[in-house]
Amino acid sequence: MKPYQHILVPVDFSQASQNSVQRAADLAQHYQAKLSLLHVVEDLSLGKVAFGGTQTLPMNATAKQNQIVLPASGYCSGK
Question: Whole-model pTM?
Fold first, then answer.
């Protein structure tokens, strides 16, 4: 079997996501593979938010992002 060369992990800041990143980081280290993390932000209608809609924009996801990304940052490709 050909070893992994590049591992892509979707993240959503959940505990399951954290576990997936840790497992992927372990695999990336074992196979000396690149690790890329992907977080897709939901497209919110700014008109609804700006004019009193029930949706609110997340103010700061940095803490959660750092909690997940920093432990795996040595294996991330950064591209």
Answer: 0.60
